[in-house]
Every structure is written in C-alpha cells, then in structure tokens.
Structure prediction request, 419 residues.
Amino acid sequence: MKPIMPKTELPPSTHRSKVNLEVPLTGRLAAMSTFLVLFLFIISLHAEDFFPVMAWNWAPNDPAVLKKMRECGLTVAGFVTTNTLDACQAAGLKAILSDPRSKGYNWANVDEKVARTNLTSLVADTGKHPAVYGYFLNDEPTTVYYPGLAKVASILHELAPDKWAYMNLYPNYALNSEMDASSYDEYLEKFIAACHPTQLSYDHYALMDDGSLRDCYWQNLEQISAAAKKNNLPFWNCVLAVAHFNYREPTAADFRFQVYSTLAYGGRGIAYFSYFAHQVGNYRSAPIDQFGNPTPAWGYMQNVNLQIQKLAPTLLKLTCDDVYHFGSLPKGTHLPTEKSLLITAGGDDFMAGEFTHQDGSRYVMIVNKDVVKSHRCSPQFRVPVKSLKLISPYSGQPVEFTREQVWLAPGSGALLKLE
Prediction:
C-alpha cells in the first residue's frame, strides 16, 4: 500500500544542456520533420506490440527527465498534468493524466452533473492528444467510493471510450476495515460490478527486508488473474521499485522476479512504485534518487523492461490458460493437474503459466522463483513435444532451448513455444 505523499519535486536536470530535443529547422523541412515525428510516435504506441510499463509517480514537465524514463524502457508516464503531455509525446511516452476534473471529488458523494461538466471539458481539452493513455481517478479506493467512482468512470467511458479510467486497487494484505469489505474477493467483485473497469490494476509489495517474500503474494496474483479472466479484462501489477518502511532494496533478481511472475499469470501491464525516490523517511535506492541521479536500480529496471518489450509481440497474442507451481505450494496455488502440459520443470523452485496463441499454438512460461540462485530448467511434458523453442528476451526471436539457454537466472523466466 502506498503512503500519502506529496508530489516528488526533482532538482533541475543536471544534463539538460546535453539534450537538444528540438532541431532548429525552417520552412517545409520543419513541417515534414514535425509530421514524421508525430506519425512515428502514433504508429509506435498504437502498434500491436505496445506493452504498458509505467512509473507510478508524478512525472515532471522536464524533457530530459522524460527522455531518461523512455530510455529506461518505460512506455507510460504516471502521472502528468496537461502541460506535460507535449513533452511526453516528444519523449515517446504515453501518459496517465492527473487533473482535478477527473480526480478532484468527494468520492463518497459525487455530483453527477458537476462531474459531467468537468469531464466534458477535460476530454475536449485533452482527449485527442496522442500521449493520453488514461485519466487518473483514485488509488486504493474503499468500497464506499465505488458508487462515486462508477459515476465518473461511466462518463469517461462514454466521452473517451479509448481511454482508461485509472483506478488502482488495494493488495490482499489490506485490512478489511481499509477496504470496507468482508474479504478481498468481495472487494474485487464489488469493484468490477460497480465500476465496470476496462482494465484491472492493483499493487502488491512483497519484498521484505528480512529477505522473505510476503506469503500472500502468489495468492494475490491468483485472485486478480482469476477476476480478470472471468470478466475478460487485462490486468496490471504495481510492484516494488524503491526500498522504504520494512521493504528491502530491490536487486536485479527482484525486478526480474516481480515482472516474470506477473507475466506468467497473464499480466498485461507493469507499474513500478516508484521510479523517483520520495524525499522523506527511509525511502532509498529508487531508480532515480532524491537528487535526480540514476542508481544501480535504474539499470536493473531498464534491463527487465527491455526484455518485456522484446517479448511483447508474442506475449500480447497469448491467452493464459492455467498457472501452477512445483514442490511446496504457496498459499492459494495448485500443482499441475492431469490436463497440464508440464509434469515437471526440473525442480521445486519453478512455477509455470500455460498459454494459447492466437494461431492455436501452445506456450509455457517457466519462472525461477529463487532470487538468489540460478537453476537448470529441464521441462518434462505430459505429451512429448517435437521441439521446444525459447522466445529470446534479447531479440524476441525463437531459438533452440538447449545448452546454455536452459539455465534460468535468479527471478528470471523462459517463454517457450511447443512444436
């Protein structure tokens, strides 16, 4: 769960003088250049392989900072004001717009007429901007807010059906009193029934500073993915990227683990809390520190984000059929069944998601749950396969799953095509 925090104020960019995003062209050449940039931006972000990866922060209107975010492999900036949209577009980023007209309500008592007036103005001002991916409504709402959120979301869906009314849900370790629900499943069901979301998003910070993983991490993935599948919705997982409270400083393996475990459950979006370190308390080791400088975590995040983008053209054509674990079962999970493709992955440190491609072919994603040691993956299938191809996270192309390829780094995953 996220603390109530003020917007992060970053120091002025120290490398702005090195970045020149506007080339001084004139006449026809300038017009052609502007058109080409806009054309390529729209094509790239609306392509079939666009996979949303977002920084859960308030992003500044600083071209150099936004460019650095894009270089980190992020594809969505969260959250921005209207005057930052042009800079997001120039950097190649989509954005979740944070504006009082979509978020500034007493959610327990929303005046629908006022909301419609506000949202009509907001969509008229920003709805056609190519950088707008969605509009921020609320983070970690209680069920008491659902009727008010439903009013605003419904109007947004009507006025801007291609934009996301962004609402991010509590994790399953929230107290019932915080959710105003008798259980997490009730919390989820009531949200979907009332707000009719176009995507599900939740946060879960599971990396504890004693080296452990929250025991309800996998159960939360099971609950969200089941609700998403039942209602034919994509889902996002907002994961830990900054040490704070009693959460540890995420390692490269931790970043891989959080991403690949989400992908194995069929996740269609990743958000990171947070990209910028908050200037308070024991917040530390975010990808960008309190002085605006990149930390080792920036490289960790970039590496796994670039892997996501290479896998995206395949991932986005897959439907998750089932997920199971091997060895000792985490809470809420299950072993392979009689219908599962896999009998074993070669050890008890693995879990696997099964998928069907749009063309009918079958895939599995096997994840090494160990964030300390590499493990050799030797899958055995219930029905023998002719060949097994790894979709390379570095090229996106199929390669033979043999020899060095079968070793999975701590927290890493392997997307395998059965032939």
